Write a sequence for this structure.
């Protein structure tokens, strides 16, 4: 049961103070050089609720690289576009491997374990590149529509940096193509995937954009149907089992919310029938999840009684 949510703004401010006093832990994602330039000291948190409240603290309105959080939005677009056929090409099981692992793809004949590891997100990028005439623009428009903010943009520095350090992603895409599970040309798939990862958004924009997943597929602000209730359930289920990569079990065990992280340091956590939490702090643990962000989501979930398993 969700506990007292009055004075959320004050609660978030107080929570940030506790985190700022912690020693710096973790490591910034430096395998994409453009991300290594971001200051490690950023910290932001925002909560958006389906009844229209927004509370934020710290750098909650500063745009950062959303990275793998984009996989959630790509998945929704692909489900809407090709429906059940998607699940012939990608599975819905946890991988038990790091997010960028290639090893299972060979064993499992080019079918990615789930849509939120890199292999699965590349598959989704292929669906979008193959089924939209202007797929990158369609993705950006979707993000702008969901956030209600036309200023959402693609960070070209991050995009170029990813493109020139994307050999592992290219290898996975070629391997899937060798099994006949990729339709488009690989450069187009990679360009789609890196464009999605390179979108810059703030905690506040992200939290608002994902409210439909807390509200059975309907954006509570516009009443637009973003996806079916069944697909909202499916996305939340995948985020619960795989969204925090190889730390998903521990995250469910200790926090109990569907969530997705990105190597830019963002985390989004969906609280069904309540709202969305988004945190940002760039230092990552060995799984690629923000250390402070995980702590912030954990504290909020505990203080407010948000776990879906209660
Ligand atoms: O594929 C990559 O390397 C990145 N563009 C996205 C990775 C990412 O955010 C994984 N998440 N933790």
């Amino acid at each position: 049961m969700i506990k007292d949510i009055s004075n959320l703004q004050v609660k978030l401010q107080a929570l940030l103070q506790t985190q700022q006093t912690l020693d710096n832990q973790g490591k910034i994602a430096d395998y994409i050089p453009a991300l290594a330039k971001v200051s490690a000291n950023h910290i932001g948190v925002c909560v958006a609720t389906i009844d229209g409240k927004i509370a934020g603290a710290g750098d909650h309105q500063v745009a950062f690289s959303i990275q793998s959080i984009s996989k959630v939005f790509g998945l929704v677009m692909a489900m809407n576009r090709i429906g059940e056929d998607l699940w012939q090409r990608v599975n819905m099981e946890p991988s038990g491997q790091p997010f960028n692992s290639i090893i299972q793809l060979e064993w499992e004949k080019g079918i990615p374990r789930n849509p939120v590891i890199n292999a699965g997100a590349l598959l989704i990028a292929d669906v979008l590149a193959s089924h939209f005439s202007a797929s990158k623009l369609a993705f950006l428009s979707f993000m702008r529509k969901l956030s209600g903010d036309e200023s959402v943009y693609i960070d070209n520095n991050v995009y170029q940096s990813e493109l020139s350090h994307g050999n592992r992603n290219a290898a996975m895409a070629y391997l899937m193509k060798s099994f006949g599970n990729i339709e488009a040309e690989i450069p187009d798939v990679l360009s789609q995937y890196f464009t999605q990862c390179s979108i810059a958004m703030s905690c506040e924009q992200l939290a608002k954009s994902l409210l439909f997943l807390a509200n059975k597929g309907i954006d509570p602000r516009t009443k637009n149907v973003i996806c079916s209730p069944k697909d909202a359930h499916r996305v939340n289920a995948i985020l619960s089992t795989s969204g925090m990569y190889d730390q998903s079990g521990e995250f469910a065990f200790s926090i109990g919310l569907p969530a997705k992280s990105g190597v830019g340091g963002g985390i989004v956590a969906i609280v069904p029938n309540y709202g969305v939490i988004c945190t940002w702090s760039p230092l990552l643990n060995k799984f690629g999840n923000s250390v402070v962000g995980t702590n912030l989501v954990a504290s909020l979930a505990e203080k407010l009684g948000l776990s879906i398993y209660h």
Q: What stands out?
A: The pocket of 6-diazenyl-5-OXO-L-norleucine is lined by residues 67-68, 99-100, 118, 162, 169, 197, 261-263, 288 (CB under 6 Å).
